[in-house]
Amino acid sequence: MWNSVCEAISAQLGDDRIVKPEDAEGRLLSVTGEAMPPVPILRPRDTEELAKALGICSVHKTPVIPMGGSTGLVGGLRHTGKELYLSLELMNRIESIDPVNRVATVQAGVILQNLHQAAEDVGLLFPVDLGARGSATIGGLISTNAGGEKAFRFGMMRDQVLGLEVVTASGQILDLSNSMIKNNAGYDLKHLFIGAEGTLGIVTRVQLRLRPQLPNVHTAFALISDFSAALELRSKVETALGNDLTAFEVMWPEVYEMTTRHRSGRLPLPVANGIYLLFESEAGTARDPEAFENAMVALYEDGLVEDMAIAASEADRQDMWAIRNDIEAIIRTMSPLLAFDVSLPVSSMESYVNTLNDELTAKWPEARFARFGHMGDNNLHIVVTIGQDTMLRKDEISAIVYEHVIAMKGCISAEHGIGMDKLPWFEMGKTSSAIALMQTIRTALDPNNILNPGKTIGAVG
Amino acid sequence: MWNSVCEAISAQLGDDRIVKPEDAEGRLLSVTGEAMPPVPILRPRDTEELAKALGICSVHKTPVIPMGGSTGLVGGLRHTGKELYLSLELMNRIESIDPVNRVATVQAGVILQNLHQAAEDVGLLFPVDLGARGSATIGGLISTNAGGEKAFRFGMMRDQVLGLEVVTASGQILDLSNSMIKNNAGYDLKHLFIGAEGTLGIVTRVQLRLRPQLPNVHTAFALISDFSAALELRSKVETALGNDLTAFEVMWPEVYEMTTRHRSGRLPLPVANGIYLLFESEAGTARDPEAFENAMVALYEDGLVEDMAIAASEADRQDMWAIRNDIEAIIRTMSPLLAFDVSLPVSSMESYVNTLNDELTAKWPEARFARFGHMGDNNLHIVVTIGQDTMLRKDEISAIVYEHVIAMKGCISAEHGIGMDKLPWFEMGKTSSAIALMQTIRTALDPNNILNPGKTIGAVG
User: Fold this and answer.
1) Which of A223, A348, B7, B221 would you call most buried, defined as having the most Cβ atoms within 10 angstroms of its Cβ?
2) Does position B416 have pLDDT exceeding 90, yes or no?
3) Quick one: average pLDDT of A152-172?
4) How, if at all, do strands A41-42 and A84-87 pair?
5) Is B47 exposed, middle or buried, given 0-12, 13-18 or 19+ CB atoms closer than 10 A?
6) Per the record's keyword annotation, is Flavoprotein included, yes or no (chains A, B) (predicted)?
7) For testing contact with chain A, the best of B125, B130, B177, B187 (most A CBs within 10 A)
8) pLDDT (mean) for A88-99
């Protein structure tokens, strides 16, 4: 099925640009754990090679599925057996780090952690961070507009991108390079390609904004009685810390219990039936190191907080974040499970969580939950299990989860994207005119429907 | 010429929705000072009325020029005598301010200062600010993606917009409402309409992100020997102040001289032949009030700064900003003049300014300059006069100004947009494929070419 297109590509680019299915075995599992038969992987060495290859795919009408670090969570790598995978793993060069103008120019295959390191080496910061930093690629992060815990302070991936280079479906190189923070000369086309999950073009090179490092880092873990206290606390913490607040995370009690159950050593806070908040401040050197602790003591004395731990060392801090990020512990305890990534007005989060609890346990008394997220930017992660039938009931459970999100004016995908998994729910909360415009744009940019067909906004036409 | 379209609109919406040309006299001067014969002004009362009116304009193929507060600087209101103006001045309602979720929902005709006030009333901040705040409208600010001095900290207008409602050229209402910071469900269509100067649709309603207020404000004015010291100072100030640095402005000596020449009372700094920097820090309450002053004293003791003034009161602070913002003084001193708004890598600003000086004075020995801008976000404003011939030589002077901007990888419009004035230079620094994609999008969204035809990206097709 792939013979003619692969031969044409090999003839143009050389034999080693295609990994054969038999050699690709073991590389093609998505993290959702589905086994999929391998398909060939196209690995261009540079933008020009990719342009040629996409031109050939366009003529052959062979669809292409772009892959980044394969760390996506919405089935973006699912294939129908007809597609080629496209990996930019050979295009992994950090081309330049400009410390004066604070711009990194990198190829799309660069791994996030390598960019973090390169920025750090010149005393700068690239502020998007997430658990998959060791494998997620810049191209994948841009195509999914990745978020993470600092989005409410520094923005999502979209907000770091100054300019980019894209190869379109027909194999045309579209140069939208820019290193300026302010550029109002015509339509800002880059935004079309950010968060489009590779359906409108393949991002190949990018200029990213870097920031000054913030050496003065302080972290606290607080236990409060209920969610309404979390809203009050957020206001007070922001009034005190202002711009320096860079993370504001929430965990319901079951999550703290699960992620600390098998921990050795002292826990920062006791296991209790309250809401856990983890927040962090990052400031310049002019910040009095004791200002954070003083602000925390004032909050404690206010009586809003039941208990509080302040990280006294970097090891303490790492330990707190390890509890927040121990998704493995949740998976171990709850599997089989369904994981949801939604956004909600913070004022509705509590009633949402309660509604979900009531409806799901009424239907499946054995239903259990893990609820946590980036409260600072509306983002809630919800894990649900009803025991052995969980996967069988996926559609019913998803319908309940998403219906209430839409009713409360939230969004069914906060930071993970649509991929394949969320396609059945994609139209919820959207007007038909908005969907029609998305389809118009997709058809204009990919008339042969070869870029990730059937994903993100579904089938077109 | 307008009779049939105006009659059709009046028949549908009522007589008072069109201001006749004879009644519009005196309202239609752009700030660039050109006198233009009046044209009728369409003033819908709500989105539905606008949709009906645009539908009628579309059928009649009558072009429409959207106007905001008429404070634009690039000739966006220039007409050919065939268009209708479209004003949303009757759609000026602040529909809601949600203090918990920090979202303002406003109609596009709301004046910026009114939004500032409404946010302040609930203890919140809307961070985009500029001199025209008393007349610029939210719709105009979105359509031009306005910047201002705090863009490097809080972003431009684009970065404040969570969701919006647009009426398309055909009179369709496109509802892209959203109040979530994180929303990754499909293409983020709102970005198409932000900064498009009304050529792709008319923004009618918008959800804007509000921020916590930062009560701890400190301001300093520094005099340094040369621009290379400014780069060093920026690094040191950011290391000290971190996230709290919200403005970093630069003025060359001629600007300080012009804007202080007729000031009574003591000046914050002497008139000298150096570079003037104005910067501001806004912090939460946990910031030690003396931290700013201590950081400034440390800079001074470093020897990097020739002289420095720290605002000791709000009156001092207002005084410093009045010097920075006294554009009137520049206009009085230099007219006739040409004003340019460009962006440049900070590392190239000095050599850019020198090159410009050399080339222009070689050609016109009487050439004089005023150079200032938002150094923190690459944005330089350059005012040029060569005396009485200035307007006659506009194209030659502009060519020199823009050629070097492009050669140094800057941008010909940092924050003012393209409008009509910058159209001849629009293609500089852009690839033909990028321009073609802009035209494809414009044609797809406005097939009859009735929205601001001939502006922003020029004639299509």
Assistant:
1) B221
2) no
3) 95
4) parallel
5) buried
6) yes
7) B187
8) 97
For an interface test with B, which of A152, A182, A189, A235 has the most B Cβ atoms less than 10 Å from its Cβ? A182
Residues 6+ apart with CB under 8 A from B416: A184, B72, B73, B74, B144, B341, B422
Judged on CB neighbours under 10 Å (0-12, 13-18, 19+), B291 is buried
Q: Does B217 touch chain A (CB under 8 A)?
A: no
CB contact under 8 A, B181 and A151: yes
Residue B287: predicted pLDDT: 77
How are beta strands A64-67 and A84-87 bridged, if at all?
parallel
- Asked if the model's pLDDT at residue B30 lies above 90, the reply is no
Quote the CA–CA distance of B232 and B216 in Å, as a whole number: 25
Angle CA B188–A408–B106, to nearest 5:
60
Tokens in use for A366?
């054995």
Give the burial class of B438: count Cβ atoms within 10 A of its Cβ; 0-12 exposed, 13-18 middle, 19 or more buried.
buried
Which single residue is written with the structure tokens 């950010």? A194
A264 vs A392: CA distance, rounded Å:
36
Point out which residues pair with B310 in neighbouring strands. Answer: B220
Percent residues over pLDDT 90 in chain A: 76
Instruction: Measure CB to CB from residue A175 to each of B180, B184, B434 and give the nearest one.
Output: B434
Q: Structural domains in chain A?
A: 3-87 (3.30.43.10), 94-212 (3.30.465.10), 216-327 (3.30.70.2190), 335-417 (3.30.70.2740)
How many A×B Cβ pairs under 8 Å? 290
